[in-house]
Design brief:
Blueprint lengths: L9 E5 L6 E5 H6 L2 E3 L6 E3 L6 H19 L17
């Protein structure tokens, strides 16, 4: 089982009601049409045009993260470099 980076990494979102930035996970931003402000409790409607650049950036980031997480990475404990060989 791997770690879902999208549930760990966060991005600030400006609340239009209290004019403060609050952090939300990338998955919350990408998967919800509306967020609840942590400060005033107001609705942050991500469908509003002001949030289009944020949504685009978050979705592109998640796509890159998801692609990277699906690609297996292998690290060899044996090196073919002559400088790492034992005498």
């Amino acid at each position: 089982m791997g770690l879902d980076t999208g549930t760990v990494f966060k991005r600030s979102v400006l609340c239009p009601h209290c004019n403060e930035d609050y952090l939300f996970t990338l998955r919350a931003i990408a998967d919800n049409p509306e967020l609840k402000c942590h400060g005033c409790g107001g609705s942050i409607r991500l469908g509003d045009s002001v949030y289009k650049p944020l949504l685009s950036e978050v979705r592109n980031t998640l796509e890159a993260v998801d692609t990277a997480q699906l690609t297996p990475t292998f690290v060899s404990v044996h090196s073919s470099s002559p400088s790492n060989s034992l005498p």
